[in-house]
Specification:
Elements: H1 24-39, H2 45-56, H3 61-70, H4 74-83, H5 86-99, H6 103-114, H7 119-125, H8 128-133, H9 136-149, H10 159-163, H11 167-182, H12 189-198
Length: 200
C-alpha cells in the first residue's frame, strides 16, 4: 500500500505515523537515532535510509521522515533515486512535496516514475509536487496511465482542481473510452469520474 504524500510544509514529525514493524520499541529507537543522524547530516545517514525497510518494516513513512530530516540537495536526491530500490524511489517521490526542489531537478524524477511499470511508483509520483509543477500535457498522460494500469485516480493530488474545465483531457478520455468500447472492453468507472470533473 502506498503511503499518502506529506502535506506542503510538513516536517518529519508532523502527521499520523503508521505502526513500526517487528519490535516497535526497538524499531523506534533505531529510527530516532537515524533521524538524529539525518538531521545532523552525519555521513552514515544514507545507509540508514537504505536499511530503514529492514529495521522499520515496509511502511514508506520512516524513509520519508529521514529524507525530510536530512533535506538532501537536488543532486544527492537524484543520486539516491537512481541508485535506489523501488521502495527507496517511492519514498523520495513522496518526500518531494516537503523537499520542494526546483522543478528542473524534481520533475525528472516524477517523469521517470511515470514511465515505470511499477504502479506504486506511478501513484507516489502524482502527489502535491506533481500537481504544482507537472505540465498539462504530461499531467493528462499521467491521468490516462492511471486508467491504463488500474492506479486509482483518488491517488492523484488536486485531481479535481486540475481537471476542472480541461477540454483536452475530456477529449482524450472520450477517445480512450471509445477505444475500449470498440474492443469490447469495459470502460473504467474512474474514467467517468474524471470526465465529470472536467465539466465537458
Amino acid at each position: 500500500m502506498t503511503t499518502a504524500p506529506t502535506t506542503p510544509g510538513a516536517g518529519p514529525d508532523d502527521g499520523p505515523r503508521p505502526p513500526l514493524a517487528a519490535s516497535d520499541a526497538e524499531a523506534q529507537r533505531w529510527l530516532d537515532a537515524a533521524l538524529a543522524e539525518a538531521a545532523g547530516r552525519a555521513p552514515g545517514w544514507q545507509l540508514r535510509f537504505a536499511e530503514a525497510g529492514r529495521r522499520c518494516g515496509p511502511s514508506d513513512t520512516p524513509r520519508v521522515r529521514l529524507l525530510c530530516a536530512a533535506r538532501p540537495e537536488a543532486a544527492e536526491t537524484a543520486r539516491l533515486y537512481h541508485q535506489g530500490t523501488a521502495a527507496e524511489r517511492r519514498a523520495i517521490l513522496l518526500a518531494l512535496d516537503t523537499l520542494d526542489p526546483d522543478p528542473a531537478d524534481g520533475l525528472p524524477l516524477v517523469e521517470d516514475a511515470l514511465r515505470a511499470n511499477d504502479t506504486t511508483l506511478v501513484a507516489a509520483a502524482l502527489g502535491p509536487y506533481a500537481a504544482r509543477h507537472l505540465a498539462p500535457h504530461a499531467w493528462r498522460h499521467a491521468v490516462l496511465k492511471c486508467l491504463f494500469t488500474g492506479v486509482p485516480v483518488t491517488t492523484i493530488a488536486r485531481l479535481a482542481d486540475r481537471a476542472d474545465g480541461d477540454g483536452e483531457l475530456a477529449r482524450m478520455l472520450r477517445d480512450y473510452a471509445a477505444e475500449r468500447t470498440a474492443a469490447g472492453r469495459p470502460v473504467p468507472d474512474d474514467l467517468h469520474h474524471v470526465l465529470a470533473l472536467t465539466g465537458h
